[in-house]
Design brief:
The chain is mainly beta. The chain is 11% helix and 52% strand.
């Protein structure tokens, strides 16, 4: 018995000695594992897929009246820590794969109120551009934004300053930067940069949320080759000899935006609105902003545009009613019915929709756009099709899964 206890004690001592020798190595492995897990927790992968069926009134003539499509298939990766964030996002649809975001944001722990962003990202103008397509209550952005910013992102860099919570500047934010002006991930085509900036305020007071902002865009479009610039003079377009090849036609926008929401027994009620105006260097047949290097003549117009949303959640249910009106006047210096080209025709769109949030991941949208265009007098250089209202209403049934 004495030999048994002696042998057992000796074994325990030897085991303890061996374990004590292995303990530092085990602690090192655990520490390495914790570091890897911590680094992995900084990486976030998210995205959403929007599959839809559309009935398009304008497709009757060519047999594309109803179509299936993947409107958006986004995959987004973001790595964040105390010193900033790196984001990459691609869009995968039946039409191919394209870059949506590729940017970095830098900051320091001691200056949480300031940050620097560079790469391809949303232009800091207005409210609707940065409002995610996965949460927006209408299928597409308003016509004024689709025209002025056909690709809502751009290549550039910006500074952002935000008032800290608990200070007199809480809720205020200002951001501004320099951009190529080509839209999306298009390559740089000249040395001139466009400035975009927004001053905004947003805060919550009990059951009320309020926000407002003012934005400006100061840039230009370069005239290339033998192209000419046209301006409006005495109700007609004439050559602007002050802008020669290699020079720039001014591209200047201004905008106000407003957001208001209140929660009651009826549910959450929201009103969002924006109004934009300024000078747009577009084309003869359309006033869309150029994307990339410009080829052809430039037509300079003074424009205005707006949208107003009314969004009503139905009490505590998962249903939401949406009503939206938006308008775009590409040339507000001419009288109605006296349009000069197809690019001068006004549009007003009334949208009515219903949303069903089935789960945190799944959302269903049914939305009808009633599109009205200004009718022309059938003279100048306006197409005969604009003598009447075009048949271009659109119904969208969309299913979205977000992860």
């Amino acid at each position: 018995m004495r030999k048994f206890f002696a042998t057992t004690a000796l074994a325990l001592v030897c085991t303890g000695a061996a374990f004590s020798q292995e303990l530092p190595e085990l602690e090192g492995r655990v520490s390495d594992l914790e570091k890897k897990v911590s680094a992995l927790s900084n990486l976030k992968i998210s995205g959403y897929v929007q599959a839809q069926w559309q009935w398009n009134e304008s497709g009757v003539a060519d047999g594309t009246q109803n179509t299936f499509s993947v409107r958006r298939g986004r995959i987004k990766t973001a790595y964040s820590n105390n010193y900033g964030q790196a984001v990459m996002q691609i869009d995968v649809t039946e039409g191919g794969v394209s870059i949506k975001d590729a940017y970095l944001t830098l900051k320091t722990p001691k200056l949480q109120w300031a940050s620097f962003t560079a790469g391809v990202f949303d232009r800091p103008f207005g409210y609707e551009i940065s409002y995610s397509s996965s949460t927006r209550e209408s299928p597409e952005r308003s016509k004024v934004f689709l025209t002025l910013f056909p690709k809502e992102r751009d290549l550039g860099a910006k500074l952002t300053f935000k008032g800290l919570k608990g200070t007199a500047l809480e809720g205020f934010g200002i951001e501004g930067g320099l951009f190529t002006g080509n839209g999306g991930a298009a390559k740089e085509t000249d040395s001139k940069k466009d400035f975009i900036g927004r001053l905004g305020y947003s805060n919550t007071f009990g059951n009320i949320t309020f926000g407002a902002g003012f934005s400006t865009y100061q840039g230009g479009v370069r005239l290339n080759g033998d192209a000419k610039a046209y301006k409006l003079e005495n109700d007609k377009f004439v050559v602007d000899n002050s802008i020669q090849s290699g020079q720039y036609a001014k591209r200047q926008y201004y905008g106000f935006d407003l957001q208001f929401a209140v929660t009651s027994v009826l549910g959450r009620s929201q009103i969002r609105a924006e109004y934009l105006w300024g000078q747009q260097p577009g084309f003869k047949a359309k006033s869309d902003s150029p994307t990339g290097a410009v080829s052809g003549d430039i037509y300079i117009r003074d424009f205005s545009g707006y949208y107003v949303y009314f969004i009503q959640d139905i009490a505590t249910t998962k249903h939401t009613f949406v009503a939206k009106i938006d308008g775009y006047d590409p040339n507000r210096k001419i009288k109605r019915l006296e349009n000069l080209t197809d690019g001068d025709v006004c549009y007003v769109t009334l949208g009515l929709g219903w949303l069903f949030r089935a789960t945190d991941n799944i959302r269903i949208m049914a939305y009808y756009d009633i599109v009205k265009n200004e009718r022309s007098g059938g003279y100048n250089e306006v197409s005969d099709k604009f003598k009447r209202d075009l048949k271009d209403d659109v119904f969208t049934l969309r299913f979205q899964y977000k992860f």
